[in-house]
Each structure stands twice: as structure tokens, then as C-alpha cells.
Amino acid sequence: MKVKKLTIDLEQTRLVDIAFEIESSLALVGQSGSGKSLTLKSLLGMLPASMKVSLESESDFELRAGESVAFIPQNPFTALSPLTKIAKQFFVDKSRLDEIFEEVGLGKELLGRFPPELSGGQLQRVVIAMALSKRPKLLLLDEPTTALDPQTRVVVIELLKKLQKQENFLILFVTHDIASAQNLCEDICVLKEGRVVESGRMKDIIDNPQMAYTRTLIEANFANREFRK
Fold first, then answer.
1. Among residues 5, 180, 186, 189, which one has the fewest Cβ atoms lying within 10 Å of its Cβ?
2. Domains of the chain
């Protein structure tokens, strides 16, 4: 899919003015306030009415959350009711629920539990299962690994890679964690103050960033050069 032009205005101020294309998996990275979260929320229709959004896009599916577009938040608790058993929070038939639980590596016994009874990694897998249960065309990720420990973070990224191959969906990964983005996404788009300052293949940008701002982001994410290989 291609976003030919996306603008977000608040009164007389233009907060975001960007364009990007998702061929398979795209990481949208930048410092806090760069516009990446505004971009994601605009695609989900979650921005307040005070913000004016103009979107010109091209895709073979309709950009509508809950149908062709699914969302995985940073904190899985925001997507789950703590007082409702896991099984009751899915709106698909039992065969699809069993299938997607198996795909994300969760035992069916968890379906009878409440969210507070699960670990952080299990909760994130439940939210992934929930997002993919209706077979979306586009999966939006909002820092889904930030609250996880390093080992679980790797497991979740590998799971998302496997599921993308199986389910054939596009990924837009909004994050400041370039290390995780590098392991999941083929392409990267770097935002600064609501504008694209650099974009291209992930490996090319990581190995040879052209902008000082991008170099600063990369060096802040990688403690040593060996990890970048």
C-alpha cells in the first residue's frame, strides 16, 4: 500500500506532512514528537476532532480499523478487559480461535483465564492473536516490545515474522527501538518534526545513514557495533 500524502493540522500548525509506501514491512522511527504516533493514530481514526487529517492513499483494501486494519498497542492491557476471560474477548468462531492460538504458541487452557493471570509475554501473544484473528491486510504496531524483557522481545519479533509469512499481511511498525525494527522490517522511514528526513531499505540506512539525525538515532539504539551486524 502507498500513502501518497498524509497531513495532520492543528489550527494553523501543520504537525505532519509525509508520504511512504509499505511493500512488506516498514518501520516508522523518530524521537518523541516526531509525528510517528500521530501518523499511526490517523490511520486508526483515533485523533481528536480538533486535528484535521487529509489522507491520500493507494491500496487494494480499505483503510478501516477493525476490518482490513488491525492494531497491537504498546501495553496489551489497554486492549483487554481484566475482568473478562480471554475466550470471551474474541469475536471469531471456535475453529479460528483454536487455529490462531496454536499459531501464536499459546495453550488452549489460557482461554479460561483472566488477563491478570497471564505473564507479559503471554498477554502480548493474546493481543497478537486478537489482532490477527480476522485476517487483516495491514497490521499496525505501536511499540509492542517496549515493555517486554529482552528475551521475550526477541521471541515476539520472531513470532510476528513467522505470522506475516503465514497470514500474508503488511506491517507498519511505529517505534523508537531501531534494534527491534531492524529484526522485523525490510524498510525504514525516519521522521523528524513531522517530516520524512530519510527512508529506504533497512540495511542500507543502518549501514550508511545520510543524515546526522538518523546517525544519532542509530547510535542511541545500539550499544556496540557488533550488535548491528
1. 5
2. 2-228 (3.40.50.300)
